[in-house]
Amino acid sequence: xxxxxxxxxxxxxxxxxxxxLLGAGLILIFGMENLALGITCIAVVLICANGFGLIxxxxxxxxxxxxxxxxTIRNDGxxxxxxxxxxxxxxxxxxNFHSDKIKVNDADGxxxxxxxxxxxxxxxxxxxxxxxxxxxxxVDVQSETAIRALASRYPYDSxxxxxxxxxxxxxxxxxxxxxxxxxxxxxxxxxVLEARISHLAYAxxxxxxxxxRQQAQAVVAARKQIVEGAMGMVKMALQxxxxxxxxxxxxxxxxxxxxxxxxxxxxxxxxxxxxxTGSLYS
Length: 282
Fold this sequence. Notes:
With about 280 residues, the chain is of the alpha+beta class. It is built from seven helices and ten strands. It has helices at about 10-30, 35-50, 125-130, 135-155, 170-185, 205-245, 250-265; strands at about 10, 50-55, 60-65, 70-75, 75-80, 85-90, 95-100, 100-105, 110-120, 190-200.
């Protein structure tokens, strides 16, 4: 099904024609000039009166003629069309779907609770009316299905660089959700304007355990970064000493210096300097 434009005329122009026919019919009937023609005019006026319609902004009328789709009228205002067609009113306004909080397993198998807000509107009235049973219910079901599929595709959180997660890469995640929803809802003539995650959390039964895990992962990641920075500073210090010729260090003294610098840089507490009055070997 594809939407097409239906036949329509200016309602005010046809109303004027109707009034002229009505006046002519009344004159013919009461003037006894041509009773049959007058009755015919009145009958035509009564039949054609069913063709008038009024459309509000962001509204459409889908027309069918004896079970066959003949087109859609989108222009707001007063119009006239074939009086024998059936009409179905359809809103073209932007709508929101706020999903329930869904419990599902993420890519790592952890149970999470997720919810989303979907912003959508009808863009093809023929598909929305004739290709699905109830396009609004269709959007609700397909949105929840897409949210479940999205949650199972990404982990809740990830400390590995370059690995997207639900919490770490929200923009990429919602764009993936919007694209998947658009593909699912294309058959219903619906355009997905925006998709946003409104709720994201671990399931209550593992929330405390996952919080401790997140804290441990954060500590490990922080210590890794500290050690990498300290190693870079030690390397730079040794290279500067050798380049400037301040002091010549053998391998054992270099190892001792590296040990002392790493302790000073990496230690969480304050370091206590020790003054060695002798040599390294005494």
